[in-house]
Amino acid sequence: MAQHVFMHLVKHDAIRRRARSKEYSRWWLAYPVLVALVGIVYFTIYVSSGEFQPQYLLYWTVALPYGFFMIAFARTHRERQNGTFGWWLSLPYSRFLLVSAKYTASVLYGIFCVLIAFVLTTLLSGYASLLNPMFGGDFLKQFFKAEFLWYGYLLCFIPFMAAYGMLTSFVGMSYLKPLLPLMWIGFGLSGNGFIWLTTKWQAFKEGPDPLHFAPQAWSWWGIVASFVAAGLMLAASAKIMEKQLRL
Contact at 8 Å (CB) between 180 and 240? Predict the structure, then answer.
């Protein structure tokens, strides 16, 4: 019974239904298609110019941890904006169950975003190898190996950043709101910390093997510590929701 309730709450938080007119729906689909077409043309010209390097496809992903934070933050903050916060609190379930469901939905959405980025990077790198044979063969195999490990590393950061985003949202809606500036400073440092960790991995070295990607052993201990911290922040969110929340 408890598992059924939990999955129902996760489904409720994960699926957002909005009433859209047919005209709005057409425009909503038209913009991504237009951006994709322009992006393909630009990408083709850039690869053909000889200045492109496949690893550039991974550099933008250092911003994804910030996105994981904002997904969880917005998912909680939206309840207050939509005027459904009181209804959400009135549900006959424990605070920890409500927080865990919203957190799980945020993590699943983060995983979905990483998978989309992974597929996009894979398709673009394959397309680049067709445009420039230098990026094919063994080089493309090395890139796929580095890409797989890189995105696996990104997946490991979702639990921590989602929990931190949810905790920040609850702090902003509680009597602990004076701590909010510190939370946002931590948000900036957490992203910078991620970038620092990835540079320590020395993902792309000079030399005959430019896509060598070997994580240092201590990085994995850092990931384990982030999982523990995520659990503590999740428990803290439930506690704030129960004791310190300002309605």
Answer: no
